[in-house]
Amino acid sequence: MGNSYAGQLKTTRFEEVLHNSIEASLRSNNLVPRPIFSQLYLEAEQQLSSLEAGSRGDNEEEEEEEEEGLESSSPLNPYQMHPPPEGCCTTDGFCQAGKDLRLVSISNEPIEVPSGFLLVGAKSPNLPDHLLVCAVDKRFLPDDNGHNALLGFSGNCVGCGKKGFCYFTEFSNHINLKLTTQPKKQKHLKYYLVRNAHGTLMKGPLICWRGSVELRSRQTSSSTCSSSLFQAPESSVPPAAFTSEQVLVANPNVLMGNQLTGTTSDYPLQMSAMSPAVFNGKDSPKHQQLVKNNLSVPTRPSVLGTLTNSGPPKKRHKGWSPESPSALDPCYTQTSAHRMKTDSAGVSCLPQAGLVGPATISSPVVAAGEPVSVPDNLLKICKAKPVIFKGHGNFPYLCGNLSDVIVSSLLYTCYQNSQSISRAYEQYGASTIQPISEEMQLLLTVYYLVQLASDQVPLIEDLEQILMRSWRESHLTEIRQYQQAAPQPFPQVPSHIAPVTSAQLPWLAGLAASSCNDSVHIIECSYSLAEGLSEMFKLLIEGKLVKTNYVVIICACRNTPIDSCIAVTGKYQARILSESLLSPAEYQKEVNYELMTGKVESLGAFFSTLCPEGDIDILLDKFYQENQNHISSSLNTSVNKPAALDASGTPLCTSYGLERHQIRPLQLAVAQKLLSHVCSIADSSTQNLDLGSFEKVDFLICVPPSEVTYQQTLFHLWHSGVLLELGLEKEHVTKQRVEQYVVKLDAEAQTKFKVFLQNSLQNPHTLFVLIHDHAHWDLVSAVHNLYPQTEPAVGLVDRLLNCREVKEAPNIVTLHVTSFPYALQTQHTLISPYNEIHWPASYSNGMDLYQENKKYFGLSEFIESTLSGHSLPLLRYDSSFEAMVMALGKRFPRLHSAVIRTFVLVQHYSAAMMAVSGLSQMKNYTSVETLEITQNLINSSKQCACGHGLMVVLRIPCIPLAAVAYERLYHVRERLALEDHFEIILGNPNSTITIGKHFVEQLKVWQKIEDAEWRPQTYLELEGLPCILIFSGMDPHGESLPRSLRYCDLRLINSSCLMRTTLEQELGLAAYFVSSEVPMEKVTVGEVLESDPEKLSSTDNEDEEIVTEGSVSEKRSPVKRERSCSHDSASSSLSSKTSSLAFCNESSPPLVSLGERARSPHPPLNSVMEEGAASCEKQRQRSSQCPMTKGLKQPPVVFLPKLVYDMVTSTDSSGLPKASSLLPYHSVMWASSFRPLLSKMMTCTEQSLYYRQWTVPKPSHMDYNNRNEGRMDNFHPRRLLLSGPPQIGKTGAYLQFLSILSRMLIRLTEVDVYDEEEININLREESGGHYPQHNDVWPDLEIFKKMPFDYIIHDPKYDDASMICSRNQKIKSDDKPAIRKHEDLYVRRQTTRMRLSKYAAYNTYHHCEQCHQYLGFNPRYQLYESTLHAFAFSYSMLGEEIQLHFIIPKSKEHHFVFSQPGGQLESMRLPLVTDKNQEFIKSPTFTPTTGRHEHGLFNLYHAMDGASHLHVLVVKEYEMAIYKKYWPNHIMLVLPSIFNSAGVGAAHFLIKELSYHNLELERNRQEELGIKPQDIWPFIVISDDSCVMWNMVDIDSGGERRSDYTWSERNVSLKHILQHIEAAPNVTHYALIGMRKWSSKTRSGEVQEPFSRCHIHDFIILNVDLTQNVQYNQNRFTCDDVDFNLRVHSAGLLLCRFNRFSVMKKQIAVGGHRSFHIKSKVSDNLVSIAPSQYICAPDSKHTFLAAPAQLLLEKFLQYHSHRFFPLSLKNYGHPVLSVDCYLNLGPQVAVCYVSSRPHSLNISCSDLLFSGLLLYLCDSFVVASFLKKFHFLKGATLCVICQDRNSLRQTVVRLELEDEWQFRLRDEFQTANAKEDRPLFFLTGRHI
Q: Which candidate, 683, 898, 800, 703, places its Cα nearest to that of 1526?
């Protein structure tokens, strides 16, 4: 190929394609080949996996690494420090005078720095984490090239103030560096120190000491890409706004700095895989803007300018030569890819040296050479300002007519960023993967420009992706090698690939451009770009670049790197790009200037020349004069008639109706998702939200400063009923009251917000929800707004919502609500990704669960309608309008295109109104689309009997232009006498809606409003009003539009500044709900607007198209439908045909609609339409033509600018619209140019994670400083984000959320408690069963002893248990309540909902401040430490020693006695009977629990009213860990592992035995202290884990008679009850004390008697001393308390129930007895097994069950005892005799309990005949003589139960049972257990 590298050429795919293309072009006689770029990169090809650009890590480490390499390869210099003077300080970090020099210590102290000195940071080898602050003369520091530092040193100590150190050795000694090598300033002075915005001194850029290699400097100006086009400045931001933005540094050879005093940057050095920083070795893009903008600030410099040097590589890189890429190209040192805004037009072109001034060191980007003069009249000749993008190398000065040219460095930044990708692979060793060469970058750019169409504008995103894909493909092999293999210390160097050389470049670029018809022109220079620029200006002046859109200037010399730039000279492209460089503020300023200076008058004059009959205004006046009388009379008859009809009460239109507040299923689902997220915050262990402490909900909704949005939110809130539901307001809420809950974020917002904050402080038990609606609006940092007094609204959101009070308030939850969340999803966001709630996507799984009767039409549906094969497109552009705008843009190059577009569109609307009104000649001066909109608007109200019409939204962002358009259209409408046909409304965000009185009256009639003062305040209230709404304001603020919206005209939106949020929120205006009941594609002919006769007769594609109002131009073949352009011949001819029908008869009344003219060819339809208002059928037909009817079935039509249309409708290979990959928001920037593309398949959550990884906020963003606080995951715990498409119903969803949140909080303060009436009330003991003294507060012992024991069970939970007989019962079968069927046994027990009192017991979900310490939760400390202690005692009945374990938290050790501190546990301390401490509960409380670690009510802090108490949880061994996790500060008694499958009887048994053993130990211990054994407190409390509240009955017996009394019940603390019982006289004489179970059905008789001697359940106070010889049955699962009560009574002990105390039991659905599941042992099938299968014959092949034998026994007897005792069934007069135990035989069998113990109390059984005998594990006390006292019915049955078959036989023999009972072999059974599970055995027999 003629280059010197030909022998080394080894091509990649690119070179191969390139050379093939060149060869083909040389040999071909035909047309030039297709450009290489389109062959290589524009075809659909395999998608490469996304690559994340990595970063090197910290520069500091890199530099130190290098130094270590240097030192290790050369001998160390032996260096001896001079010994310090005696008595001086030698502490590291302090000077010898003892003053602290560490940066962290003195960063906020004022430091005096002499003129000419700078503060720098020195590194001490002994303090690697600190910098020492020094003041150094800047003459001895290097300049920005790394040169010109004077030899020597001059510095001062900032600690003691000592000055004049002339040697660095002397200075290093003074500041105690303690060096072991020769002190060198280059080695130890590391960083410049700068002050940030808060005045804090902090580490700044590296000092760049190395600078030996001559470098080409690169000139850059501040540039950013705002995402789309080569984009725009942000000069609305004050100059000092950038002071906090320090550019990142990744290479020690690069230093970026700001030229600002006092406020320098504090951008953190952040390097992570999550946010790879990519860097640019050139000048800081922001730096020069700061330099320029701060010329007027009289300050001294605080930091040097940019210092750039790529120097030779480190010595470890062998084989470096001056010709290697790393030596030649400093592009490997990269600045961040944050694409800052470019500087404004003229300034960026000025010579830098003239701007910098004496305060700065000259910038290295300034090249030597003659400046290039910009010719005069360039704009006038070219009709556009050329936009020049700096590329590679030096850019010359420009002088002369600088206002006619614009210079940007955006392309330069793109090139720099494209070289950062190889850094991701440096971690694998030496840099073997080279970045893309400069020559290749430029060549790819040329190919990109070549393939652009004439109406396309280059996008930086496209070029970035092209460069990345090229690089990836070139290095695919190496990339895969590094991605798959582990890093090797010496990776193989890949074979050298010869790049495109600089000599080849111009020729190849010219070859590439040869096929584009001179659209791209290549200029090659010999010496510098200056000659190329001069040549370009010359060609422009000579008019030789008329067809050229892009000029590429290349200066490529063989021995020097290339210089390049690209000039955009195409009039359309240059205009778009130059306007994209204006910020929104500058855009408005420019338009205002053009309007005020009269520049637009030339445009008006031009329009006047277009009309053949003279000025349009003259035509209008003439028309007005000619038709005034005729029109007014016809209007009076046609327009007012419907209103009169409607007022008369005849409903003529059924389609009308404002949608009031109604919750759709999806909104409810989203509200529940919000609630779920709030609950998950509360449930987390971080203690950030304590929902249990809140009693109610309050809120404040913040909306943007739009009056319509404000009123709209008030409207929704008022009609939602939320205020009433939350209890914030009472009935008849006034609008003034509603306004307290919505704040408009304007200058007056702070007052309402302060009230909100005060309320949150004063009401800590109210949860305040701060809702930030339209949250993407105003994300400006409050710090960024340096002048809040002049612009109070800027940064207001940050000042209010991010203030310290909101962040720290524990009772404020912030909810951001937006349709465009992207700017809140950056690397610095405050919102956790787990706190994001996304609206369910319409295509997601499960959407069919929501029965929605409406279909949402959003952006994706609009785009879908443009695809081939779909119905008529809803997104369109107007080609004739675009053509006229483009032509006028060339004619008026100095006018902003927004002005031209607005005037053209207003002209089109004016001409269309005139054409529809009868001036048919004007139809040639409008577009088909505008004519369609206008005629449908004017004719729509005549389609409806009531006059309902359609709305047209005309979007004009610029408010001054909107005002001009309004005035002009208003004037034209008035001249045409159309003011009663439709309204023109100027929608300004700062003002209310103003409409004419006539239309207000119409709306009042339609909406049945009688208020004389009513005016519409929201756009929703304009429902059905025919109108043009001119929607102004730079951004929509969430305003909703009515269902009568038919056209959304967005042709005037700013198409030059494209961002994802901007585009989507503009298109969001048209978002719409259509009825899903009517298929959109199936619109019948009768529903078509009559204005189009062609449609009525057409049948093509009728069933598959959305038929919209308008001309036939919309109907086109599927091929053409892809682009809805309207200038093709077919549409034009049809349109003109339609128009000619309208205007053929000039003499006809001008307001007759096209539809009326078109009726004649269709008599049947005509006849229906022209009959009078006589029949209901006719009314139905007319009603069906109402625009409102269509509005329910089809969304509006949207017109877009061509540029935006192409952007929105073009998709990438995944089908994602191109607009979605734009920069999301103007205040964020990409973290890297090399990022993966968004995918269409990404969910909202995945998109969020994408933006969180790949975007960072700009300094102006309120989240910018979030990461500076030290934590990487600095999310605010109480902040949520709700995102969903626009207009989908987010307001309704969050209002519903408030409602269900309030209900949940009320529910959290409520609990379901069992509310059941006591059973067997009519069977109470009659004689002597009552306590006589009703006013006693404690029982009298002597009276109580005489009371009989009530054997009957009254607890309703034992409703299905066997009744116990006593001697006085006379039971008939009908006395027993109706027996429930078996399946009814599981019916849910009756509960009632009760509000928790302040004395309730709580589960683990309760976290209030008072009980944090009690629970052991404190976020600042670790969980409480606990120790495990063994405690053993022997028990004869078990035949072995029992070993229990206590887990005792350190905070509870004072309750126990140890042999020594931390030693053996000896006993649990017990108080004395005589103790009277009111703040102490004497009885230890034991709570056995299983399966309820979360839900058990173990938090007794409030129940005990804060009193000191001992509470022990009794848990099974396998549950120990989980209980300890949830209750770290509770004492736990861990049962032995043999009880893991045991029931509650085992826990009760061990609690009681342990307590008695402990009582003995305590008596012995305290006896040594002189205390009598009987004085030790003998009671313990055994409480269920579901006892939630305790109540007390107050009796007022003020009457004379005994029956005269009243009573009331109140909630009291458990402390009150226990202390009352513990203080009872003779309390130690009672064995068991308890209380009633609460019931709302309690009868007065039950509480009149204060004490009862009866069964006690659930919450018992047990005297372990008296019950020493009475044990719980450790085998029992059910009814063990009844069994124990009977044993205690038969032992002659007293059971006392305090009837005036009651316990409420909470219904807990998990754990407890429910945790026992009986299932098969051999299969894992969870098939339920019937109780009848719980027993089987011994030795049978019955399926064994995995359950304890005792549980099987109890369950079998409960349900099938009639198999053993057939005579006992419902035979209550002849019960079953049960010896020494109570087993539940089911409700249909009665039992009689007797004890075999000597001296026990038993009922008299002499006159009873028993129907059965039950002997259960009987012991030696049961003898034959004892059994012979009892008499049995003939045929009575016997059941003997023993542990094994041997015991069974022995028992039969010992008790001589065969004397009276007959046994058969087949009457032996066993529980269905395996042998190893020790089954129980049964023997049954019959009485002889």
A: 683
313: Cα separation from own chain's centroid: 47
Residue bearing tokens 């790394």? 146
Q: Which two tokens stand for residue 1049?
A: 């005209």
Counting beta carbons within 10 angstroms of the beta carbon of residue 1391, is it exposed (0 to 12), middle (13 to 18) or buried (19 or more)? middle
Is 727 in contact with 1304 (CB distance < 8 Å)?
no
1850 residue type, one letter? Q
Per the rule left: phi > 0, alpha: psi between -120 and 50, beta: everything else, 204 is beta
* DSSP H or E stretch at residue 1325: none
Q: Dig out the tokens for 1220 from the structure.
A: 């979605």
Structure-token match 């539940």, residue found:
1784
- The DSSP secondary-structure symbol of 228 reads S
Neighbours of 126 (CB within 10 A): 13
Place of tokens 């277009």: 610
Distance of alpha carbon 1514 from alpha carbon 1786, whole angstroms? 30
Q: Which of 167, 168, 176 is nearest to 84 (CA)?
A: 176
Q: Cα–Cα distance between 1859 and 1849 in angstroms, integer?
A: 14
Using the 8-state DSSP alphabet, how is residue 377 labeled?
A: T
Q: What one-character DSSP code corresponds to residue 1221?
A: G
Query: Which tokens sit at 323?
Result: 């010709």
Output the DSSP codes for 772-838.
Answer: EESTTS--B-TTT-S-TTT-TTTTHHHHHHTSHHHHH-TTEEEEEEES-GGGGSSTT-SS-GGGEEE
Q: 782-810 b/e with 16+ CB inside 10 Å = b?
A: bbbbbeeeeebbbbbbbbbbbeeebeebb
Q: What is the C-alpha separation between 1840 and 1280, in angstroms, rounded?
A: 66
Whether 1196 and 1046 have beta carbons less than 8 Å apart is answered as: yes
- CA 273 to the chain's CA centroid: 23
Q: Using CA atoms, how far apart are residues 111 and 136, in angstroms rounded to an integer?
A: 13
Q: Do 1231 and 276 touch, CB atoms closer than 8 A? A: yes
Q: Where are the alpha helices (DSSP H) in 127-284?
A: 168-174, 185-188
CB atoms within 10 A of CB 1826: 14
- Evaluate whether 1036 touches 1069 at the Cβ level (below 8 Å): yes
Residue 1219: strand, helix, or coil: helix
The gap between the terminal CA atoms of the chain, to the nearest Å, is 124
Q: Is this prediction's pTM over 0.70?
A: no
Q: What is the DSSP letter of 563?
A: E
Which two tokens mark 491?
Answer: 């990776």
| Position 599, amino acid | K
Please, what are the averages of pLDDT over each run of 10 residues along the chain (1888 residues)? 39 53 52 45 37 38 41 47 80 89 87 89 86 91 79 90 89 88 84 82 82 36 37 36 34 33 34 33 36 36 34 36 34 33 34 30 40 90 92 90 91 83 52 77 94 89 86 71 49 50 88 90 90 94 92 85 93 91 86 88 82 75 78 43 43 64 86 93 80 90 95 93 89 86 92 95 94 93 65 81 92 96 93 93 60 82 80 89 92 92 95 92 92 94 88 95 96 92 94 94 92 94 95 93 94 84 93 68 34 33 35 34 36 35 35 34 34 40 62 87 90 80 90 81 91 92 75 79 95 95 89 92 65 89 93 93 79 50 55 92 83 67 72 73 90 92 90 90 97 94 94 96 92 94 95 95 94 96 97 78 76 96 96 96 82 96 97 95 97 96 94 81 75 89 87 95 94 95 96 94 90 95 94 95 93 94 89 90 94
* Closest to 587 measured CA to CA, from 987, 1068, 1035: 1035
CB 1166 within 8 A of CB 1159: yes
Cα separation, 172 vs 188, whole angstroms: 9
Beta bridge partners of 1365: none
Closest C-alpha among 777, 1752, 1720, 1702 to residue 1226 = 777
